[in-house]
Design goal:
The complex is a heterodimer. Chain A is about 60% helix and about 5% strand. Chain A is built from 24 helices and 4 strands. Chain A starts with a helix and ends in a 23-residue tail after the last strand. Chain A is mainly alpha-helical. Chain A has a domain at about 30-100. In chain A, the strands form 2 sheets. Chain A has a two-stranded antiparallel ribbon with strand order 1-2. Chain A has a two-stranded antiparallel ribbon with strand order 3-4. By secondary structure, chain B is of the alpha/beta class. Chain B has 3 domains: about 5-110 and about 245-325, FAD/NAD(P)-binding domain (3-Layer(bba) Sandwich), CATH 3.50.50.60; about 125-240, FAD/NAD(P)-binding domain; about 340-465, FAD/NAD-linked reductase, C-terminal dimerisation domain (Enolase-like, domain 1). Helix content of chain B is about 25%, strand content about 25%. Chain B has 12 helices and 25 strands. Chain B has a 5-stranded parallel sheet with strand order 3-2-1-7-19. In chain B, strands 9-16-10-11-12 form a 5-stranded parallel sheet, with helices on one face. In chain B, helix 1 (about 15-25) runs parallel beside helix 7. Chain B is globular, with a radius of gyration of 25 Å. At the A-B interface, helix 12, helix 22, helix 24 and strand 4 of A face helix 1, helix 7, strand 21 and helix 8 of B. Bound molecules: flavin-adenine dinucleotide and iron/sulfur cluster (2 copies).
Chain lengths: ~525, ~475
């Protein structure tokens, strides 16, 4: 490793460490005015009353602050619940908003400074490390030493990274009040693009986008000379930056609902929720366009594009989850499980989630049109179960947190309902396949090892059979790493796409065999 | 002998033995099938050994079938070394003294690295590269060393250079020929690979032969000398001067102190030459005993452009397929390989070949060679001077469609037709820069012709269709 890369790593670790420690800094002070400014009008009176013992008190840590807040708030609510006074219970969660507004520490005063010495310096360090990668080396596969690497083959570093990611997601989803300092750093940016202060989701989107861009640059270095990888990576970087990050915030600036035009139901599982539909319907022509466009994507876009190009058009070219997996997750692609057992579990799980998403959405729509007579508020329960179990725990905590443990496509492979839908089209009605080049396979196993979806590519290749699998996201890496030029992702006639009884070319003794 | 419930025993769990077993099972439910190997418990890909050393894969990844596969297909695996075969009694004797009976025996024992009796060839730190044990030995032998020398410029030699290079061990590569692999590759191709080897900072010594290997007091290698008298200090010597059939154990060796029995095989002596001699049905001179893969030697070469001993992965597989067919069919077929094909990778340069492209050719043939300006992409065609039919192709960093060239060569397509359809014959990944126009221009210029590329419609390109 070159010295400059070592310096880059040190700087990156410094930034990351500071980022992780930042939530522990600062002081917190709640005032009456803060409460009034941050809770709904109907709750103002009660909340001021409940929280009044905290006013004027300076807390030296967010833990102390949140603990006091929760004890006062819960005491109030618990009392009502015990008396079954359900209508008086305050169901809204104000912990995040109030903690953020009460922060008086250095971060609140100097958001740019702290953004600079955590995130931006981390990006700088990462680039110092990444840009010189493979400099002075010839174009070609760069997999040397992957299975000796602690980071990339479930060693200590991999475990630590996994643990960090898991923790980050848990805090982000369920305890955001503890990371208000981090959110405060990006407040000015959020104000600039959307005119609103940042939520934890803005912070997340910001870091997510940066991760895709920085690690996308790493992809350019690693797969230098491979045009397919370069173009595909550029596409996911652009999609994330433009469609998932900037455009939705600009929509908010224009008083439109936050909307990601490339997200498709059922991955975008809230698309048919009442608040989303009403948001769209009440936002004029553009809002209607969002609704119609979303539905067109589901009923025409997915089948049509998948018919012509396979599910890769979405999964490894456009999708945000796929984008992160293909960039941040690329160093871990070899950790996916290739066993037939894993494939079985995959099929049950991913189609199970699809069924769940369809049922949930079906009930939601039926309930909506029946004027909430069908199920009343029960769909809310369904939504929160789905949101918790699938939307947060599966897609986030497991989906990304498990990169260093089970490979970079855990969510896409085992959980994503959209991937399941795309996969069904790809398997049964598509022109896409990975063609096996006659008898050239030497069964080396590089393709299977580096398939992030855990497809045992070699199983097909060594029998001279084309690879037609619903889960293949068309990342093209199997083809890239094959040392014998055996695999080609291509779209072609449906005839001969699935060659179940292939004739391995080269042996003229026997002509057709099973 | 009735075919039901036969006890078929295969010695060797390499590609040929395993392919044979799998295909027997597909067509014969009742046979008892046993595969024996002393090397590893399970079949692994020998061609992938280098990737384990380089950290691209672990041993587990090189196993083409999961471990449950064998039981499910009722293929018994036995880990043991066969020491003797009693062809009379139809029985195998293992190194631990146990024995095993067979009805049908398939010998698929592979190869072993050549050693040519160099002084010092048995020192510590000197080794070949064939088996899993060799790989383990190499891992141990190359810890903390400051230079390695590789002797022999073939495919395994260059793989070994790449392996050592991946661990940043300086390599001196002794190649007897004047250019890398120039007994197989035409001059331009050889020279291109020379350059590429140098680009990887390998100390390539062309036209250089090993003199002797010198050890220190502890029996470790410390240097080698070349025939021209140069001494090169090194702590590891890789001997990669080809392989030969692994049949030594068949000559009744001494075991457990007992002297080899003269005439152990009595009148039943397995006929061997360099390898185990077989006919086109893989039959040896002893009934119910067959040989396939690297260890087999055909009485007559299976085709005019084929050798009597075929030592590649693909042929091993075809031997296995064909023998399995014959063992389960009433109408045995002779082994009849189709158009030759092979592939390799020289560091970053992939190589594929189809048909007939020798290092030198006679007057009857003509060749077209094109090399990209960067000097790493190249293609060569060989075609008949008078009939203009395509005979073969070498491609470097340019993946070609096997089915296309198999057809073109076996059906004797006109070379110019192939040349104008190169866009269709190419197997490069999507979006890769294509060179078929450059090749055609090159030919047009040479011959004063104006052939045009067979065009695809825009729509077809858009949806990625191919003819
Ligand atoms: C490093 C390397 C790279 C290669 N790369 C390529 C390539 O890229 N392309 C290509 O086409 N070919 C390649 N080859 C050649 C190819 O691997 C061989 O041709 C092929 O593996 C031969 O298969 P086989 O089944 O005949 O024998 P083997 O694979 O050698 O299997 C024979 C087995 O029998 C066992 N055995 C032998 N004797 C006994 C005994 N007495 N008792 C018990 N077990 C015994 C051996 O231990 C071994 O496991 C490569 C070879 C090497 C070594
Ligand atoms: S099969 Fe190949 S293209 Fe498909 S997901 Fe796996 S590595 Fe990517
Ligand atoms: S990487 Fe290529 S040669 Fe190796 S097993 Fe896969 S398809 Fe076969």
């Amino acid at each position: 490793m070159k010295t400059i890369q070592k310096i880059g790593l040190v700087i990156f670790v410094f930034g990351l460490t500071l980022f992780s420690l930042l939530p522990f800094f600062g002081t917190y002070q709640l005032e009456k005015g803060t409460v009034e400014a941050n809770v709904k009008e109907i709750h103002t009176g009660k909340m001021v009353e409940v929280l009044s013992p905290m006013f004027g008190k300076t807390y030296s840590s967010n833990f102390a602050f949140i603990s006091d807040f929760k004890s006062y708030f819960n005491t109030y609510n618990d009392g009502l619940k015990a008396n079954q006074e359900w209508d008086k219970v305050i169901w809204d969660n104000y912990a995040f908003a109030l903690t953020k507004a009460s922060s008086t520490g250095p971060v609140a005063e100097n958001p740019f400074l702290f953004l600079g010495i955590t995130v931006l310096i981390g990006v700088f360090g990462a680039l110092l490390y990444i840009l010189p990668l493979y400099r002075g080396q010839t174009e070609g596969i760069k997999n040397d030493g992957i299975f000796f690497s602690s980071m990339k083959s479930r060693g200590l570093l991999g475990m630590i990274t996994g643990a960090w990611l898991i923790l980050f997601y848990i805090v982000l989803y369920w305890f955001p009040e503890y990371i208000t300092n981090l959110v405060l750093m990006v407040d000015p940016i959020s104000m600039a693009v959307s005119g609103n202060p940042a939520s934890q989701w803005f912070l997340y989107g910001f870091i997510y986008t940066l991760a895709i861009i920085v690690m996308g640059i790493r992809m350019f270095r690693k797969y230098r000379g491979n045009a397919y990888q370069t173009i595909r990576t550029t596409s996911v970087m652009f999609s994330q930056l433009a469609f998932a990050f900037l455009l939705p915030e600009i929509l908010v600036l224009m008083n439109m609902p936050w909307h990601d035009f490339k997200n498709i139901w059922p991955l975008d599982y809230t698309f048919f929720y009442e608040y989303r539909v009403e948001g769209m319907v009440s936002s004029g022509a553009l809002g209607m366009f969002m609704l119609v466009w979303g539905i067109i994507l589901i009923v025409i876009g997915v089948p049509l594009f998948t018919y012509f190009y396979g599910k890769r058009w979405y999964c490894s070219w456009v999708c945000g989850c796929g984008g992160l997996a293909e960039t941040l997750g690329d160093p871990y692609r070899q950790l996916s499980d290739k066993s037939v057992k894993a494939w079985k579990i995959e099929r049950y799980l991913v189609h199970g989630v699809l069924v769940f998403a369809i049922l949930m959405t079906g009930f939601t729509i039926a309930n909506y049109f029946s004027g909430f007579e069908l199920l009343g508020q029960a769909t809310d329960q369904l939504h929160s179960i789905y949101g918790f179990a699938i939307g947060s725990a599966f897609a986030g905590v497991i989906g990304t947190g498990f990169y260093p443990l089970m490979g970079n496509r855990v969510w896409c492979r085992f959980g994503c309902p959209l991937a399941a839908y795309l996969g069904i089209v790809q398997r049964f009605k598509s022109r896409f396949r990975i063609t096996t080049n006659g008898g050239q396979c030497i069964s080396c196993g590089n393709c299977s090892t580096y398939c992030e979806m855990g497809i045992d590519v070699r199983w097909y290749a060594q029998r001279g059979q084309n690879i037609v699998r619903s889960s293949c996201v068309g990342c093209g890496v199997c083809s890239a790493v094959c040392p014998r030029g055996v695999l080609k992702l291509e779209n072609g006639d449906e005839d001969g796409r699935i060659n179940e009884m292939p004739i391995i070319i080269g042996n003229k003794s026997i002509t057709v065999k099973a | 002998m009735s075919k039901a419930n036969r006890n078929i025993v295969i010695i060797g769990n390499g590609i040929s033995g395993v392919t044979c077993a799998r295909h027997i099972r597909k067509k014969d439910e009742s046979a008892h099938i046993t595969i024996i190997s002393g090397e590893t418990d399970h079949f692994f890909s020998r061609t992938a050994l280098m990737y384990i050393y380089m950290g691209h894969m672990k041993y587990e990844h090189t196993k083409p079938y999961e471990d449950w596969f064998w039981k499910k297909n009722r293929i018994n695996l036995k880990r043991a070394w066969v020491e003797k075969i009693d062809f009379e009694e139809k029985s195998l004797i293992f190194s631990n003294g146990e024995s095993m009976a067979y009805d049908v025996l398939v010998l698929a024992t592979g190869s072993k690295p050549n050693k040519f009796g160099w002084p010092g060839q048995d020192l510590k730190g000197v080794q070949g590269m064939y088996s899993f044990q060799d790989l383990e030995l190499m891992q141990a032998n190359t810890q903390n060393i400051s230079r390695a020398v590789i002797v022999g410029g073939g495919l395994i030699g260059i793989e070994m250079a790449e392996m050592l290079n991946s661990r940043k061990i300086p390599v001196t590569f002794l190649v007897r020929e004047n250019n890398f692999w120039d007994n197989i590759l035409p001059l331009e191709e050889s020279k291109m690979i020379n350059r590429h080897i140098l680009e990887h900072h390998i100390d390539l010594r062309l036209g250089t032969e090993l003199g002797e290997i010198i050890g220190d007091e502890s029996g470790m290698v410390k240097a080698i000398t070349t025939k021209s008298g140069e001494t090169i200090a090194c702590q590891f010597v890789g001997l990669t001067v080809g392989v030969s059939p692994n049949i030594e154990f068949l000559y009744a060796q001494p075991s457990k102190g007992s002297k080899p029995l003269e005439g152990f095989l009595k009148e039943k002596v397995l006929q061997t030459n360099k390898g185990i001699v077989v006919d086109r049905f893989f039959k040896t001179n002893i009934p119910d005993v067959y040989a396939i893969g690297d260890c087999a030697e055909f009485q007559e070469a299976p085709a005019s452009d084929r050798k009597n001993i075929e030592q590649v992965w693909y042929t091993g597989r075809m031997h296995g397929e064909t023998l399995a067919y014959n063992l389960t069919s009433d109408n045995p077929v002779p082994y009849q390989p189709g158009v030759w094909f092979n592939s390799a990778k020289f560091f970053d340069i992939e190589y594929q070949t189809y048909g007939f492209v020798p290092a030198n050719w006679s007057e009857e043939y003509e060749s077209l060679y094109w090399e990209d300006a960067g000097g790493k992409i190249a293609i060569r065609f060989l075609y008949g001077k008078s009939d203009m039919k395509i005979k073969g192709v070498n491609a470097f960093r340019w993946r070609l469609r096997h089915d296309y060239f198999d057809k073109a060569i076996s059906e004797g397509w006109m070379f110019e037709k192939v040349l104008t359809h190169l866009n269709i014959a190419s197997f490069n990944p999507e979006f890769f820069k294509s060179h078929y126009k450059a090749v055609l221009d090159h030919y047009n210029k040479q011959k004063g012709k104006s052939l045009k590329v067979h065009k695809e419609s825009f729509f077809k390109k858009l949806i990625g269709s191919r003819a």
